[in-house]
Amino acid sequence: MVATPLLPLEAATPAHICPFDQACSYLEAAAKELKLDQGLLEILSHPRKVVTVSIPVKLDNGEIRVLAGHRVQHSDILGPYKGGIRYHPAVTLREVSALAMLMTWKCALLGIPYGGAKGGIALDPKQYSVRELERITRRYTSELIKDIGPSVDIPAPDVGTSAREMAWMMDTYSVNVGHAVPGVVTGKPLSVGGSRGREMATGRGTMIIVREALADQGKTLAGVRVVIQGFGNVGGAAAELLHEAGAKIIAVSTSTGGIYSEQGLDIAALKAYATANHKSVVGFPQALPISNADLLTLPCDVLIPSALENQITKENVSQVQAKIIAEAANGPVTLEANQALEARGVIVLPDILANAGGVVVSYLEWVQGLSYLFWDEERVNREMEHLMVHAYRQVIQHSKTRQISLRLAAYTLGVGRVAQALNDRGLYP
Ligand code: NAD
């Protein structure tokens, strides 16, 4: 029997960049700008509930392994907790806690009635069979049964998970409570109450925010040179939609390496290639190989990190040549790198805005499910675009009025709304 220690898991995170400390630093900066009361800041700095469960799973070879699963519920001041489930070897409680906090500000910034949460299991999905992943997902869901629900906490896909895992979670929850509960998760397959447009939603939202930022400079997406790190749910969709809109995607990478073509990549052909090549873009014909490190420093108009956090750091920021960085991933630019980019006048479109398309369509999926009325894709995309552009305009306006960065403006709007609601609701008892 192989036992995986439940805690501490922190060793998996690079010691020098703690995602939760970074999230708290952004919160503190927003609190300072808002002149928030110290007590309120104290409340907002702490997750409301942290759950760690052990997930015993029987592998296909009969061996039993015990994995650690987390769910961190940061705040439900504005509505039910909402946030993705991550399957990745580097998942730690601190990372999940940071991502839960980001979800709170993101939902508040977009004006959707949710709080923030995140979940994750430290595992490499590539090392498990589909049946093993199903058993892991079902046991994890069943361990969290009292903590999730359509009006309590609604998980969604994140790194390493997709509609498939959401269907297993929905089924496990439904079987346990005795009736079908589609609203317990979002990002589900259409067959069990998913929303049209959800799969592409995060990438579409990123495309919309980049398009708006270019429009503010009097430019369009046509011919704009784009580099994308990560080619999964988010990066793949962003690549496809930007390509359709006329942008030139000159480089793309996955965890195994990247590819580069000065003429621009054929994204439809690349998607087909990656699907047939274990989700890797390496070896794609008519493109040159490039390392993930070199990809981030390519000369380009727009850089879209769509993989993991802490990719642009104080070590490589001076070599980054992009004029606009859209944070499709959560936390890809570290605090120090962000300061250096701001000082150089690089536009950093912050994660809680640039990747909010996913949670917006998750919200629209939940609304459709609760009202038993499903929309066509055109309507879903229209409603999402409306909320994204509205939030973008508010961030730009706030940044100009207060003379602060887009990140601080976005955080100040999100944190400010949660603090206001907390003030209005009062502290129980
Ligand atoms: P995913 O698992 O579908 O894709 C991740 C991609 O990143 C894969 O192509 C993988 O190969 C690549 N990758 C991993 N490590 C890499 C590395 N070191 N260098 C280059 N590429 C690497 O995950 P996703 O759902 O697309 O999520 C990506 C990011 O977007 C995460 O930060 C996630 O939190 C954020 N996000 C996702 C959603 C969503 O709806 N899925 C919503 C908001 C934010």
Automatic annotation (TrEMBL):
Belongs to the Glu/Leu/Phe/Val dehydrogenases family. This is Glutamate dehydrogenase. It comes from Mojavia pulchra JT2-VF2. The active site is at 118 (proton donor). GO terms for biological process: L-glutamate catabolic process. GO terms for molecular function: glutamate dehydrogenase (NAD+) activity; nucleotide binding. The keyword Nucleotide-binding applies. The lineage of its organism: Bacteria, Bacillati, Cyanobacteriota, Cyanophyceae, Nostocales. PANTHER family: GLUTAMATE DEHYDROGENASE, GLUTAMATE DEHYDROGENASE 1, MITOCHONDRIAL. The keyword Transferase does not apply. Residues 195-426 form the Glutamate/phenylalanine/leucine/valine/L-tryptophan dehydrogenase C-terminal domain. InterPro entries: Aminoacid_DH-like_N_sf, Glu/Leu/Phe/Val/Trp_DH, Glu/Leu/Phe/Val/Trp_DH_C, Glu/Leu/Phe/Val/Trp_DH_dimer, Glu/Leu/Phe/Val_DH_AS, Glu_DH, NAD(P)-bd_dom_sf, NAD_bind_Glu_DH. The record marks 158 as: Important for catalysis. Substrate binds at residues 82, 106, 362. NAD(+) binds at residues 202, 233. Keywords: NAD, Nucleotide-binding, Oxidoreductase.
